[in-house]
Design brief:
Blueprint (H helix, E strand, L loop, with lengths): L6 E4 L5 E7 L7 E6 L4 E4 L14 H20 L3 E4 L13 H4 L3 E4 L7 H13 L6 E4 L4 E4 L2 E5 L3 E2 L9 E2 L2 E5 L2 E5 L9 H10 L3 E5 L13 H14 L6 E5 L8 H4 L1 H10 L2 E3 L1 H4 L5 H9 L12 H13 L6 H11 L2
Parallel strand pairs: 4-5, 5-6, 6-7, 13-14, 14-15, 15-16
Antiparallel strand pairs: 1-2, 2-3, 3-4, 8-9, 9-12, 10-11, 12-13
Helix pairs in contact: 4-5, 5-7, 5-11, 10-11
């Protein structure tokens, strides 16, 4: 699949979201452009090719990368602001590219609390683009006004589990009047309760969240962190203001995701919320599912869908073995089971 135009989701007359390069389109990325009457910002301006485990031939994966690299450049050219949430190479372009960076205001994740490898990547990157941007601003935990548009950034949050090796990221919250959009970038789930609390406190009308990296697990139905993320997503779907939740990125690399996130899809349907990958919300099939149909499996021949009974049984086993604290069962009953 190759979309002729970016997927566009309108929040209202003041906020429009363009999904530029996402995993559900067949590339690694979460590049999003937000347009308001006051300012245009591209968040996570990067893209990478899917790996050999992705069920598309290499030639097609490379062609998709070429196509979406150009779309990222075009999005940046239309933007006054670029936002770099962290320094993984599917979230920014690590080169001296004037078409992307010249004259831009860059809001970026501060580097002092990152793992050494990411610090080195970030320092090298900012040295490489020196002289191109209009300004570079460390964004962690700060808010900025552009006429009637407010752009806010979370404090540094863990990329997945607390103390995880990938380090920390910042989420982006864009508001104008009563309209609001939250972009999680790489919180990987979310799993960390602090991330979920932050999202719930912001109570956005639209949210774009990267799913849990289930593609790293052979039988994810027993992965307690995946079950935690399902609970957290059901809680987020229950937010009073939320109308649309895009779940993409890590999730859309795994052709098992419809069965793994069955409980979340059911919750969204029950609550009458718009929910799915960026491709699905555009009325298209996610590329990994199309590739599976056309080319077959590449891995994972023994696994189980996540049903209500399966999820609760595995949570109870984790509680008994000391891998889980009791409040997670309470949260499961409240947010996943409740009407």
């Amino acid at each position: 699949m190759n979309f002729k135009d970016p997927v566009i989701i309108r929040e209202g007359p003041a906020l429009t979201m363009h999904c530029i390069a996402f995993d559900s389109f067949g590339v690694k990325g979460m590049c999003t452009r937000i347009e308001t009457p006051d300012v245009v910002a591209t968040i996570d301006p990067g893209v990478s090719a899917q790996t050999a485990e992705f069920p598309l031939p290499e030639e097609q994966r490379r062609q998709l990368l070429t196509d979406y690299q150009q779309r990222v450049r075009e999005s940046c050219a239309r933007s006054q602001i670029l936002i770099i949430s962290h320094y993984h190479l599917d979230h920014f372009v690590d080169s001296r590219d004037p078409e992307i960076y010249s004259g831009k205001v860059i809001f970026a994740k501060a580097i002092d609390d990152l793992p050494q490898k990411q610090q080195e990547t970030a320092r090298r990157f900012f040295k490489t683009i020196d002289g191109l941007p209009k300004e570079i601003i460390w964004a962690d935990g700060r808010r900025f006004k552009f006429k009637k548009t407010e752009i806010g950034f979370s404090p540094p949050l863990w990329h997945g589990q607390a103390q995880a090796e990938p380090g920390k990221v910042i989420m982006t919250d864009i508001r104008r009047g009563k309209e609001s959009i939250l972009i999680s970038s790489d919180v990987a789930g979310p799993v960390d309760p602090k991330v979920t609390e932050t999202i719930c406190r912001l109570n956005p009308r639209q949210a774009v969240i990267d799913g849990y990296p289930s593609f790293l697990q052979s039988n994810p139905s027993t992965d307690i962190d995946l079950l935690k993320s399902i609970i957290n997503l059901c809680r987020i779907l229950s937010l009073s203001a939320l109308k649309t939740l895009v779940l993409d990125h890590h999730l859309a690399r795994d052709y098992r995701y419809p069965a793994l996130y069955k409980l979340v899809y059911a919750k969204a349907k029950k609550l009458k919320k718009k929910f799915g990958t960026a491709a699905e919300l555009n009325g298209q099939n996610t590329v990994v599912l199309e590739a599976l149909k056309n080319y077959g499996t590449t891995r994972w021949h023994r696994w189980q869908p996540i049903e209500l009974e399966t999820a609760r049984t595995n949570l109870e086993k984790a509680l008994t073995s000391g891998k889980l604290t009791p409040e997670w069962l309470t949260l499961f009953d409240r947010w996943v089971l409740s009407e």
